[in-house]
Write a structure and sequence with these properties.
about 25% strand; about 25% helix; alpha/beta; 7 helices; Metallo-beta-lactamase, Chain A; five-stranded mixed beta sheet; about 250 residues
């Protein structure tokens, strides 16, 4: 689904636009002119994501970089499929803190085993290991043509979670993964690497950056005044409370 001349949403499940399989996170494609960048792979609807790209007139073979906000299965489950389908030229990038779990397909460390135990994810899903080409660090910058991506470390939802600030052609976007959603909602989970204090600090950190659009990993996006959603969540944290939960 084309959003503007450079941005597409090509995947998403029940907590989104139902463009692909029901457990998929939102997946985005940025057309930089010379190549395509992708943000998040989804859970197991990779074939539908690829079909959506083709329907939008995008050649999946032009995707050179796949940036992953974090290692939870609804965002990273389809990484191995994407590498195989798109080709060896694809560079997959994720936080250096999370790269080992992707390479080893460690279902325990990402909470997949636990989530399967109460039926959140299907028992028969097998997470395939996938090589990581770029281990991102805080404020690392990637450029292509007029477009620039800055990786912002935002612990809280999980350790190593990253937001991606992308600017180009006069527009700027924050791809927020599961850190913050429309209306200032968050996902704080009962898992080992989720932290209220880290979440609050990271939310305030995001307000140091300027951007127009908020493009979250689930739910709606905002093309203008996207910072208001981050500000709303930060305000709740700063009053010692918690922002509303997406789940």
């Amino acid at each position: 689904m084309k959003i503007n001349e450079h941005l597409y949403i090509v995947g998403g499940g029940d907590y989104g636009y139902n463009l692909s399989n029901r457990l998929d996170s939102n997946s985005y494609v940025i057309d930089t002119g010379d190549e395509l960048w992708m943000v998040d792979a989804g859970f197991d609807g990779g074939h539908r994501v690829i079909d959506n790209m083709k329907a939008d007139g995008l050649d999946p073979g032009r995707v050179t970089r796949l940036f992953v906000t974090h290692y939870h299965a609804d965002h990273a489950g389809a990484l191995a499929y994407m590498r195989t389908t798109i080709g060896d030229h694809l560079q997959i990038a994720i936080s250096e803190l999370e790269a080992p779990a992707i390479r080893e397909a460690d279902e325990d460390i990402i909470g997949l085993t636990w989530a399967k135990s109460f039926g959140f994810y299907p028992d028969d899903f097998v997470w395939e290991p996938c090589e990581i080409d770029v281990e991102l660090t805080h404020n690392q910058i990637v450029k292509q043509g007029d477009f620039e991506l800055t990786a912002v470390l935002t612990n809280g939802h999980c350790n190593g979670h990253m937001n991606f600030l992308v600017s180009g052609e006069g527009k700027s976007y924050l791809f927020s993964g599961d850190h913050v959603f429309w209306g200032g909602k968050i996902i704080l989970q009962n898992v080992a690497d989720s932290s209220v204090q880290d979440y609050a600090a990271s939310m305030n950190k995001l307000l140091e950056y300027e951007f127009q659009a908020l493009m979250p990993g689930h739910l709606n996006f905002s093309l203008e005044n996207g910072r208001r959603h981050v500000q709303s969540a930060a305000d709740q944290f700063n009053r010692i409370g918690l922002p509303p939960s997406l789940l």
